Amino acid sequence: MVKVSAIVEAASSHSTSARPGGFEYVFPAIRGVQAGREYYVTMWPLRLIPKLFLFDEEELPPEMRAQRTLNKARVPEMARYIVDNSDSYVFSALTASVNADVRFTPLVNDGGVADRVGTLAIPMDARFVINDGQHRRAAIARALEENPDLSDETIAIVMFIDVGLSRCQQMFADLNRHAIRPAKSIGVLYDHRDPLSTVAKQAVLKSPLFSDITEMETSNLAARSRKLFTLSAFYTADRALLEGIEEESVERRIELTVEYWRAVAKQFPTWEQVHRGDVRAGEVRRDFIHSHGIVLHALGKVGNTLVRQNLTPSTWEKKLSRLSGIDWHRNNSAVWEGRATVGGKVTKGASNVLLTTALIREVLGLPLPPEEQRAEDAFKRGEK
């Protein structure tokens, strides 16, 4: 009988009575109980992940699978994240089931807490099924191809004993039932890798006005919120503002962004009134278009043109002063319906952004790029 230490040499140093004639993987593990069933938490080196977790269910009908079909488009980005951040990446545990007669041997068999720590022996012919984490598994496999030095790093595995397809499917449903993707705003706030996230949050924080009226965590504003904007809306607007702009440092990009939005804010005195507490934010969002993300996005695109023209901030202000000539009331359906609203409700689809940007450019006397011109022509033909 050959014992295979699957994670560290220390695991193989503990004597474990093996199955006669059987080959096993032996992992250090912690034993736990959920819903009356035992499960185990262990660590595997990354090199084992693609070897033991084989994802071959794509050809099966959905009712015969224990996982959703792998979205291959997600894998390269996840793998690149590991490779590019090999000294700081973080991957959460994989959850898996194994359809085998496993054997747990505690290090200390005293009936106390210590007997939860030991070694877990799994037959080498066992079949492993990922209940949660198949995209992480595929990303790990891809990352190892690019950087084999990662092979000895480890990832946590939560291992359940398989009780059939229906149980595996239920585990997948249960694990994902309450999974909620974090709001984009808090993702931007906490992201220290993406330079644009740094620009967006620092540009807001450096402005007494915007830092007060911008929601930094959620991406949806409640009706009674005292905030006008969200950080995620500024992130989208800043991406448009800085697209193709070559600056030598993040600090300079932050400075440029602060200067531009300061010039914009001077054209909307209502924003300052919200900041002072003279007007309620909810009323402004309800009554005006200019307090919505679609207008921030459009203003970011317009600002990109102004920056590319190498105009000074004072010249920006002169150009932007014409914004006061636009009737920003949401109920001005003659201007906004079909452009920024549908049935009176603000919408931010790609075509709506183009049409809103086109209107602002025309008011400011700026030429329309071809894509906006086509959208504007189609919109006006529809009106006729």
From TrEMBL:
Pfam families: DndB. CDD domains: dndB. Signal peptide: none annotated. This is DNA sulfur modification protein DndB. It comes from Aquipuribacter nitratireducens.
